[in-house]
Design brief:
Layout: H1 10-17, H2 19-31, H3 34-42, E1 46-50, H4 54-69, E2 74-76, H5 79-84, E3 93-99, H6 105-116, E4 120-125, H7 131-136, E5 141-143, H8 156-169, H9 174-192, E6 206-211, H10 216-230, E7 234-238, H11 239-243, E8 254-259, H12 263-278, E9 282-287, E10 296-299, H13 308-326
Parallel strand pairs: 1-2, 1-3, 3-4, 4-5, 6-7, 6-8, 8-9, 9-10
Helix pairs in contact: 2-8, 2-9, 4-8, 4-10, 9-13, 10-13
Length: 348
């Protein structure tokens, strides 16, 4: 079937398929900035990461990557809290502000406030003409290079932002970026060409997505995609947090989707699948393991743990699109959503 812009889900399908090329472009771009960026990251007293929606999920990845590769203390921070609540000075801190459009009200306001408080700011955005990019300046703006993204659910802009953030975390070691640029797009294509790398959500009225370590960002982003397109409750957890007690909330008509990035995550995913089954829930697992106790297991290529999110998010994107179409909805334009979210100032 020929995919056209008038076909429901066609835009999302096209943008999903673009991801390997867009990730390659983003990795190449950030490599050119690595020498200038590395001292900002390594010299920071701490790193605070700002993002909303898919950019917040990407921020979870950034925090894990920064902790892993730099040793600099890193954490996520509420953009609204930074922008509109009393704050102490931030001298010596680095703030990484992530926004696909670069026009999100609270992200721009938070970045501006960070500068006023003495922090350095790096903008990670898809728009070099945006207010956020202008605020950070061209030398401190890293571009997604995702091209125009028209479907409301973020797909290629998410994985491209991950590439930029991997570049930030590994700017001190260009060989890591060069390896990712050489191999990662091909592996993404391999997953996208696998007809089994998706799953059916027919009959599901509640979903839980769970991941640990580098996979936590995938659980968060997968939950967003499913909420946006299916318009049903979807929760996201660290897998260990889910097992701590929230697993008792699942039952029949619930699907538990787990993502594993390392052996520890695989063990936790197994526990979640078994515990969910004991309570009547269906389960899907995504990871490098050869097999799983889950009802449906999607095996992805064995790669370094920090590459897992680039591959593991793809089956979730496809399931979100296909699930919406099965429900008679258009995943390109979910009812009630727009591409850019603007919120009112929280200042008094």
């Amino acid at each position: 079937m020929t995919i056209t812009a008038s076909t429901p889900g066609s835009l999302m399908a096209a943008e999903i398929s673009e991801q390997p090329a867009r990730v390659r472009s983003a990795l190449a771009g950030v490599q050119g900035q690595a020498a200038a960026i590395a001292p900002l990251v390594s010299g920071a007293r701490e790193v605070r990461v700002l993002g909303r929606g898919s950019s917040r999920s990407a921020g979870t990845y950034a925090v894990e990557a920064l902790r892993t590769f730099t040793g600099v203390p890193a954490s996520s921070m509420s953009p609204a809290h930074l922008a509109w609540s009393p704050q102490r000075r931030m001298d010596g801190a680095l703030v990484i502000a992530i926004s696909q459009s670069g026009e999100s009200t609270e992200i721009v306001a938070a970045a501006r406030r960070a500068l006023e408080l003495g922090a350095d700011v790096i903008a990670v955005t898809n728009s070099e003409e945006s207010e956020l990019a202008a605020l950070a300046g061209s030398s401190r703006t890293i571009l997604f290079r995702a091209g125009s993204e028209i479907a409301v659910p973020a797909t290629k802009s998410f994985t491209s932002s991950l590439a930029c953030l991997l570049g930030l975390a590994t700017a001190h070691d260009p060989s890591l970026l060069a390896e990712a640029e050489a191999l990662l797009p091909r592996l993404m294509t391999q997953v996208l060409c696998d007809p089994e790398a998706t799953f059916d959500l027919q009959g599901t009225t509640n979903i839980v997505c769970a991941g640990e370590g580098f996979a936590e960002s995938v659980g968060e982003e997968g939950a967003i995609k499913l909420r946006e397109t299916l318009r049903i409750p979807v929760a996201s957890f660290e897998t260990s947090e889910f097992l701590h007690g929230s697993i008792n909330s699942v039952g029949h008509n619930t699907t538990v989707v787990t993502i594993a990035a390392d052996p520890s995550g695989t063990r936790l995913s197994e526990q979640a699948a078994v515990g969910g089954a004991e309570r009547g829930a269906a389960s899907v697992s995504i990871g490098v393991a050869a097999s799983s106790s889950a009802d449906r297991h999607i095996r992805i290529p064995e790669v370094p743990t920090h590459w897992i999110p680039f591959l593991a998010i793809l089956p979730l994107q496809r399931a979100a699109r296909e699930g919406a179409l099965a429900r008679g909805a258009d995943p390109d334009r979910p009812t009630g959503l727009s591409k850019i979210t603007r919120i009112e100032s929280g200042s008094m």
